[in-house]
Specification:
The complex is a heterotrimer of chains A (217), B (200) and C (335). Chain A has 217 residues and is an all-alpha fold. Helices cover 74% and strands 2% of the residues of chain A. Chain A has one domain (2-216). Chain A is built from eight helices and two strands; from the N terminus they run H-H-H-H-H-H-H-E-E-H. The longest helix of chain A is centred in the last third of the chain and has 44 residues, at 173-216. Chain A starts with a helix and ends with a helix. Chain B is mainly alpha-helical and 200 residues long. Chain B has one domain. Chain B has helices spanning 2-14, 25-30, 35-67, 73-95, 97-103, 107-110, 114-124, 128-131, 138-166, 178-193. Chain C is of the alpha+beta class. Helices cover 38% and strands 20% of the residues of chain C. Chain C contains eleven helices and nine strands. Chain C has helices at 3-8, 10-36, 40-52, 134-142, 161-182, 254-259, 262-266, 275-284, 302-318, 322-326, 328-334; strands spanning 58-60, 70-78, 84-90, 98-108, 111-124, 205-208, 214-219, 230-235, 241-248. A five-stranded antiparallel beta sheet of chain C has the order 1-2-3-4-5, with helices on both faces. A four-stranded antiparallel beta sheet of chain C has the order 6-7-8-9. In chain C, helix 8 runs antiparallel to helix 9 (302-318). The longest helix of chain C is centred in the first third of the chain and has 27 residues, at 10-36. The radius of gyration of chain C is 30 Å and the shape is elongated. The chains are: A mainly alpha (217), B mainly alpha (200), C alpha+beta (335). Chains in contact: A-B, A-C, B-C. Chains A and B meet through helix 2, helix 4 and helix 8 of A and helix 2, helix 4, helix 7 and helix 10 of B.
């Protein structure tokens, strides 16, 4: 069970694809001006990533090493095409708001990266968990930034007008870069602080144990 | 001539791939620490973009549309781009080892560059906002992708210049690396935003 | 390498795997495309529903133009409730531009009952189109009364005269179109008159006074910078202007209306003239004025001057038209 916990925590926090590894930046920067489209993009990537991880790890013994990258690309492209058809048919609003970035999921480094780094070395179940965790990490990061950008840049949340005040610049690519950069900095700062606190606590515990042991002796 | 100017202005300034469309950000952030490598990457991307357009646009218009298999466009395009990049790498390696030394390391990265797939997808979509009354054809498509690539190179070089200067200053620990690069990019975007106010 | 060796080699395995993956992907996607493809009709219906706000069935109506200030681009009849959905382009915007809107015209019992919605689709040259808020557009719904003709001053909440004029023209065009389709055409009595190039014939009215003179309440069209003027001109039985008053100055700003010719502003230029007199001004240009001290008055508001001049020409030329007398009771009541 501990293995799955580690995979999940890695995907969500310690190896968060958006904040820690800075992968899949194009759709992130292009879509975070609207919370709805950034969350939609996150969820689409979550589904495509999980499915591609499952398929690739299931086929990892069949595909010869020399042609593995082209095979992965074909599989991912198939899934993306399928996702695009599905969205156009059933969620046309999201399809419209994602625009060109929907097709660009194919070249999203997160998906190919997880296929290469995880799915072709691990079993189906682990790969599925890894896909969900990474996809969730991506979705959460995008949604957080989408909410910030939309609230400050357009004065609305998920399309619902809340306030008149707005900083229009934050709804443009320039604002997306700024918010993304600041979010990475804050995220890294918090994780670093947490790690330091945990290390200090562990050291303290170790010292107390040592003292106790000495006293006992 | 008017269409040509409109395409050049749109591709390089108003609809710049990095500052307006946010395509091709990975190399923009990853390979922009030195001006020489930024320029190499930019030229490599431009080359692949033009070649990819030359192949994908005719295939889409003259093969996929008549056969009604437009829905396979993503697979076709990514496959064409991947093979093109592989071929280009082998050819450059054979023909000019010096050029390969300068550009070779960037080529494998280009397959997964949004800018290349992005331009091919963009060109088969609705371009009427840029073309005006002129109709899309292979010539305009290649011109657009060429100048989009040059616009990409331009922003890459600007960015690398700023990052080289940034090395002289001390940045807070949390901001160093990607965050400060993104804040820098924010200012470039703001400067380029002014161009989007041009109306032709 | 023999054939047998080739079939056992890695190269063959690679090609085989890749081909299999490609084939399976292709077949899977073809099946999915068959199941999920969105047809053109469905796509169109979605676009319509987005404008209409709910899912409806429509049928296309043949387009025709009943109003010079607007072009009807597309028209649909909503099958569910009989309303009309019109895409109309209004002319006369800022810098000779146009605005294209979708207009939902509420129809029940064979008559137009109101405007349900106005959505701006696109525009030409209207750089301040963003200032036309939803609140402003909602006024088309709120202000609707039977036989209304929208003018830009009716619509508040937006400060862009030209753009509002174009939108009003589009909505008026849509109303005229639907009325014509429903067979409720009101006759435009001034349409055949002379000098109507710059006159809003549908907004203009007149009354016959007791002494036989006729008072025109003329509304002019807009011309590049100025929007329409409202001018009251009384013409006596001999065709001579006896009274002239600008009730609403359409000139863009104080600076421009100040530049207008003084004689045109207060009417001293026209009073006492018949059509021949006004025609000579038209033929010779407006450069004749000099004020009491004998100095030339510069005018930088040529368009505004011309609009007023045309209004005067319209009144004096048409004062004896038979149509004015026949319908005087109705027309007089309308103002």
């Amino acid at each position: 069970m501990n293995k799955y916990k580690k995979i999940t925590l890695d995907g969500l926090i310690y190896q968060n694809p958006t904040f820690m590894l800075v992968l899949g930046t194009c759709p992130t920067l292009g879509l975070i001006s609207s919370a709805f489209s950034s969350m939609g993009m996150g969820l689409t990537v979550l589904v495509v990533l999980t499915l591609s991880n499952i398929i690739i790890s299931a086929l990892r013994k069949v595909i010869p090493g020399a042609v593995r990258i082209p095979c992965y690309i074909v599989i991912i492209a198939t899934l993306v095409t399928f996702a695009r058809m599905f969205l156009e048919k059933f969620v046309p609003d999201l399809y419209d708001s994602l625009g060109g970035f929907l097709a660009l999921i194919v070249v999203n480094c997160i998906i190919l990266g997880r296929a290469e780094a995880f799915a072709n070395k691990n079993g189906v179940l682990e790969s599925a968990v890894d896909g969900v965790a990474n996809g969730l990490g991506f979705t959460l990061a995008l949604t957080i930034m989408g909410v910030i950008c939309e609230f400050l840049g357009k004065g609305s949340l998920f399309g619902l007008q809340i306030m008149e005040f707005k900083i229009g610049m934050l709804a443009t690519p320039a604002g997306a870069f700024l918010v993304y950069g600041i979010c990475i900095a804050v995220f890294v700062y918090i994780i670093d602080g947490f790690e330091r606190w945990r290390r200090v606590k562990a050291n303290k515990l170790a010292r107390e144990n040592l003292l106790n042991a000495k006293e006992a002796a | 001539m008017g269409t040509f100017i409109a395409i050049v202005l749109a591709a390089v300034l108003t609809n710049n791939f990095i500052t307006a469309k946010t395509y091709g950000i990975c190399p923009f952030l990853g390979v922009s620490k030195k001006t020489s490598s930024a320029a190499g990457m930019g030229i490599a991307v431009t080359l692949v973009m033009v070649l990819a357009t030359l192949v994908t646009y005719p295939i889409y218009t003259y093969v996929m549309v008549p056969l009604k298999i437009e829905f396979l466009e993503i697979i076709f395009f990514i496959f064409i781009i991947a093979s093109l990049v592989q071929m280009l790498e082998k050819i450059i390696q054979k023909v000019s080892p010096t050029l390969y030394g300068a550009m070779g390391i960037y080529l494998p990265l280009i397959t997964t560059n949004c800018a290349v797939l992005g331009v091919t997808e963009l060109l088969i979509g609705d371009m009427s906002a840029i073309l005006g009354t002129a109709s899309m054809n292979i010539g305009w498509a290649v011109i657009y992708s060429l100048f989009a690539g040059l616009g990409f190179t331009l922003v890459m070089i600007i960015m690398s210049g700023m990052r080289e200067k940034l090395n002289y200053y001390k940045t807070p620990k949390a901001l160093s690396g990607f965050p400060i690069a993104m804040v820098t990019a924010c200012f470039i975007c703001m400067a380029f935003y002014v161009f989007s106010l041009i109306s032709i | 390498m023999t054939v047998k060796q080739f079939f056992k080699s890695t190269a063959f395995k690679c090609i085989l795997t890749l081909t299999c993956v490609l084939l399976i992907s292709g077949i899977f996607l073809t099946i999915m495309n068959g199941l999920l493809a969105v047809s053109d009709a469905e796509r169109f219906e979605r676009a319509i529903n987005k404008i209409y706000g709910k899912s409806v069935k429509t049928e296309a109506v043949a387009v025709a133009n009943y109003n010079d200030n607007a072009t009807i681009d597309e028209a649909y009849k909503v099958k569910d409730d009989g309303n009309y959905l019109i895409k109309a382009t209004g002319k006369g915007g800022y810098d000779n531009g146009t605005v294209t809107c979708w207009i939902v015209v509420n129809v029940s019992g064979g008559a137009v009952k109101g405007i349900d919605k106005v959505v701006i689709e696109s525009n030409k040259n209207q750089s301040y189109i963003d200032r036309v808020t939803d609140k402003a557009l909602n006024q088309f719904t709120e202000l609707y009364t039977d036989g209304i003709i929208y003018t830009q001053d009716l619509i508040t909440n937006a400060t862009v005269k030209g753009t509002k004029t174009a939108i009003c023209n589009a909505v008026n065009g849509a109303l005229d179109f639907v009325n014509a389709k429903l067979g409720n055409v009101t006759e435009d009595i001034y349409a055949e008159f002379d000098f109507v190039e710059y006159i809003e014939t549908k907004l203009t009215s007149h009354e016959v006074n007791e002494d036989g003179s006729i008072t025109f309440h003329i509304v002019t069209k807009g011309l590049k910078e100025p929007s329409g003027f409202k001018v009251d001109i009384t013409v006596d039985t001999n065709g001579v202007v006896t009274k002239y008053e600008i009730t609403e100055n359409g000139s863009t700003s104080g600076a421009y209306s100040d530049k207008m010719h003084a004689g045109i502003l207060d009417g001293t230029l026209f009073v006492g003239l018949d059509f021949a007199g006004i025609e000579s001004i038209l033929d010779n240009g407006i450069s004749l004025p000099s004020d009491n001290s004998g100095t030339e008055i510069s005018t930088g508001a040529t368009h505004s001057n011309y609009l007023c001049l045309y209004a005067a020409a319209f009144a004096t030329k048409n004062y004896d038209n038979e149509k004015l007398i026949v319908e005087d009771v109705e027309e007089g009541g309308q103002e």
